[in-house]
Amino acid sequence: MTRAHVPVLAGELIELTSPAPGENVVDCTFGAGGHARLMADRIGAGGTLVCIDRDPSAEERFEEMAAEVSCRTRFLRMEYGEALDLLRQEGFGADLVYLDLGISSMQVDAWERGFSYSYDAPLDMRMDPGQELDARAIVNGYDERRLAQLFRRYGEDPNARVIAREIVRRRRRAPIETTGELVEAIEAALPAAIRRRFGGGSPAKRVFQAVRIAVNSELESLDRALPAAWDLLGEGGRLAVVSFHSLEDRRVKRFLATLARGCICPPDLPVCACGRTPEAELLTRRAVAPSPGEVADNPRSKSGRLRVARRLDEGAS
Ligand SMILES: C[S@@+](CC[C@H](N)C(=O)[O-])C[C@H]1O[C@@H](n2cnc3c(N)ncnc32)[C@H](O)[C@@H]1O
Predict the structure, then answer these.
(1) For atom 25 of ligand 1, which residue has the closest CA?
(2) Looking at the predicted structure, is the pLDDT value of residue 200 above 80?
(3) How many Å apart are CA 309 and CA 29, to the nearest integer?
């Protein structure tokens, strides 16, 4: 069953980024447009809302939203780093850019796309179905060491090695084609005592997350997008990111902290030699987490973390 995507940390995002009438806003991860609609209401008829998503199914939902809001709207079906570069080349200046990372509930629940370990489907997991690399290529193509590394780094899975070994053993007989076969391999790799520790949860969750991140180059995309988003902002512009994985949040934290610090001289240098001044004011000293009420209403929000910064200098726009 496909559930509507519930936007995560929506109230906090609006409150901290303060979208105002007439502003130019870029939503890098349109999804079902939950955040975008709230932004559109705030910026009103004088504002412009550019929405980006690499998943073609998001475009239909964008058309529905665009017909119902008063601001100017535009949709870019592209990878968000590329779209931000394009906007910069066009000379578009933004007052607010935000990213809500990961995948939407509609993507998870579209069983045939292979994002979920709860359904048996072809091993796909591509946000952009036009992309060549899919989960099948990774699960059957990476050698054992690389698979274990992937599960450990992106899935933080303590059983990475035994799972990788079992996958490689099974695919010697025949390629692993479906999500169901991947779940079977993961479960077979783990002794019953370890499997029992997952209770109602699935031991496949971490591996699926890791493969999805690799299929969609999610961390590389984020690394590219953060400076591109910052470059679109003028003085007073805000950048906000909702992340769902510690590896994402760490990147955002580091990126914003460097901008807020300004000086990049080694700490043992007695005086500053780089001459750089802070470019950012952090509007969130610590990442903002969803309230217990939000988590109770929408368990998928649980790992969401929001960080927001405001541009202090004139920027490039
Ligand atoms: C968590 S959902 C966003 C939900 C949205 N904020 C809402 O309120 O409905 C993330 C969306 O970003 C898209 N996405 C993720 N990475 C992307 C990238 N690198 N480029 C473009 N779109 C991306 C996904 O396809 C997905 O639709």
Answers:
(1) 55
(2) no
(3) 18
